[in-house]
Write a structure and sequence with these properties.
- The structure is a single chain.
- The chain is mostly helical.
- It has one domain.
- Helices cover 64% and strands 4% of the residues.
- It has a two-stranded antiparallel ribbon.
- Strand 1 and strand 2 form a beta hairpin.
- It is globular.
Length: 275
C-alpha cells in the first residue's frame, strides 16, 4: 500500500461527497474548493486541469437557467465532459496510486488502484447541471428492492458457474482503502452519471423502462476493456442498480447496491478476475 502526505486532499473531497447526499450543497462546494487548492499545492493538479474543471462547472452552473434551445447543447457538453473525466482525457491531473499490482488471494490476478481526482468531479458538475440528480423523497418500494437484490447478487455465483470467477474468501489488509475509494470515488460518480443523470432524464421523457435499459447498456459498454463477458455482466448489474434507483427514487440507494455488489465480489470471489 502506497501512502504519502499529499493524499490529505482526498479527505475534504470525501467529506464534500458525503455532504452532497445530506443536502449541504454550499458546504460541499466549499470543501471541493479546499480540495482543488490543496491539489494544486501538492502538485496533484495543474492549471490546465483546473481550467478544464472550471469550464465544466461553469457550463453546468449555467445550464438550468438557459433557454430550451441552448440547453440541449449544454447537456451534450456536460455529457462529453463527464466522459472525458471518466476516461482521464482531461490533462493536468496527477492521480495517486495507492495499490500497485496487489492480489486478494492466490487465485486472483494482480490489480492496481488509484485515488482519482478527476472522476469524482462528475458528481459536482451533474449536481449543478441537473438539480434532480439525487432523486426525490417519494416512498421507497422496499419489497421491490428485495426482489431486485436477489437476482442482482446472484450474478456473482452465476459468474462462477460460467467460469469467470471462483470462490475465494479474503479480507486483505487494504480492504478499507478499497472500500472508501470504491464507495465515494467510484460508485458515486458512476451512479450519478448513469442513473441520476442518464436514466432519470430518459425516464422522464420516454418512460422508466427505456431509461433503465439505455443506462444499463451504456454502463455495460463502459466496461468493454474487460471483454464481452464483462460487458454482459456489467449490463445486467446495471439493470439491478437502475431498478434500485427506480424503486427508491434515491441515488444513494443505487450507490449502496453498487458498492455492496463490488465489496461482496472482493471478499467472497476472485478479484477482479481469476487467474
Amino acid at each position: 500500500m502506497i501512502l504519502d502526505i499529499s493524499m490529505w486532499i482526498w479527505i475534504p473531497l470525501a467529506l464534500a461527497i458525503i455532504l452532497v447526499f445530506i443536502n449541504q450543497t454550499k458546504a460541499s462546494f466549499a470543501l471541493l474548493g479546499i480540495t482543488l487548492i490543496g491539489a494544486i499545492i501538492e502538485q496533484r493538479l495543474n492549471v490546465v486541469g483546473l481550467a478544464g474543471i472550471a469550464v465544466g462547472l461553469l457550463v453546468a452552473y449555467k445550464t438550468p437557467s438557459l433557454e430550451k434551445k441552448w440547453q440541449l447543447g449544454a447537456y451534450l457538453f456536460i455529457f462529453l465532459w463527464c466522459i472525458a473525466l471518466f476516461l482521464h482525457l482531461i490533462p493536468g491531473f496527477n492521480n495517486a496510486k495507492v495499490l500497485d499490482a496487489v492480489v486478494t488471494g492466490p487465485l486472483s490476478v494482480p490489480f492496481t488502484l488509484y485515488l482519482n481526482l478527476d472522476k469524482p468531479l462528475i458528481l459536482f458538475g451533474l449536481l449543478l447541471a441537473y438539480p434532480a440528480l439525487l432523486g426525490s423523497k417519494v416512498s421507497i418500494n422496499k419489497k421491490a428492492l428485495v426482489y431486485t437484490a436477489i437476482p442482482l447478487f446472484s450474478l456473482l455465483p452465476l459468474a462462477w458457474g460460467l467460469g469467470a470467477l471462483k470462490p475465494e474468501f479474503t479480507i486483505p489488509n487494504w480492504w478499507w482503502v478499497f472500500a472508501l475509494n470504491n464507495l465515494l470515488l467510484t460508485c458515486v460518480a458512476e451512479e450519478a452519471f448513469f442513473r441520476g443523470f442518464i436514466q432519470q432524464s430518459l425516464s422522464k421523457r420516454f418512460g422508466w423502462i427505456a431509461g433503465v435499459a439505455v443506462a444499463s447498456v451504456l454502463f455495460g459498454a463502459a466496461h468493454i476493456g474487460g471483454g464481452l463477458l464483462l460487458v454482459v455482466f456489467a449490463t445486467l448489474a446495471g439493470v439491478g442498480y437502475g431498478l434500485a434507483f427506480h424503486y427508491s427514487s434515491r441515488l444513494w440507494v443505487a450507490v449502496a447496491f453498487h458498492f455492496l455488489f463490488n465489496f461482496m465480489h472482493l471478499v467472497f470471489f476472485t478479484y477482479p478476475i481469476m487467474k
